[in-house]
Write a structure and sequence with these properties.
single chain; alpha/beta; 3 domains; 8% strand; Response regulator; HTH_AraC
Amino acid sequence: MYKVIVADDEPFMLEGWRTMIDWQGCGYELCGTATDGEEALELISHVNPDLVVTDIQMPVLDGLGLIRTMREELNYDSQIVIVTGYSEFGYAQQAIRYRVNEYVLKPLVPEEIHELLKNLIIPLDTQRQEIETRYAEERNEAAEMLDTFTDAGGVIEEADLEKMTSRAKQFLALIEAGDVNRIDRAVDDMLQEMRESRAARGWTQSAVRYVHGELLRRYGIIGADQTLLQKRTWHHTESWFHGELKQLFRQIAETFASSAQADPGSGGLVAEAVQYLKEHYRTKIKLQQLANHIHVNAAYLGQQFKREMGISFSEYVHRLRIEEARRMLRRTNMKISDIAFELGYHDAEYFTEKFKALTGELPSLYKNNNQG
């Protein structure tokens, strides 16, 4: 699923985007709405959407201001769709230089929007593939450096490999923990080693490159802005001695901290598990299968999932399924038994039991009360 946010100051339009568009059927997840540009920027910082749909005329910060900020100041490569009335269409064309992908003219026509969303899948797939390829190259390069680091004579020095691995793991742990004071001390210690030993420069540089590659993977999991990972600081060793590496690590630690605060399950393996479940909840999935997919112990994953999400793995799957069942009951004429089967329940009675437990009413009653 590709993540979407919509910005529009008209309540009627926002309601239309929420209820008239079959986001999931087109391959998207509507992750939030905003009523002005500044509110949209705040939402973007938390969601990191693949697609932003925005009206032009909005208070506080209009649509063009929002797009300009995204492209020029925040370096977001999200796909963008502008929504506008006929009288504003010429004005909307000014946004071409900000790489706007499509224009939508009011009022909304669901069939046209669905066609547009499906057409955008191609550039979104291409963009995602490019990002994944870049991440893979960075990770492979970093891993190769760990595996093949040698001294000037071409002989692997186990002591240096151990120092490099230890230092890299230390930085990653401190960054994810948000321990700014210890990050500062660890960087100072590493720089001191670099000053004292020519040989230390090699393995410390490799350690930082390894940290960079691993953070690329972890940033992808939490959906964070990649700007910090594109800074030249990573490759300019001399800038480290002027405090730039220390500052970079601090900023990254703050990113992880804010991500964890915004969503208890937004960091590390639990976030990866949640993303996988959102994409596969319709299938019959077991904790062991998920653990195998992300290469962790099943018991440990179950414990971490319950601690961070507040509910068990199986309960989370049920909630995803029942939320989708509510949408299908509202918008389709499918039989309850067919909906149950579609969502991975092979027993309609069990589906009914879980639906009532989570919503407080039977699916048949919910359907009668919520269909137009």
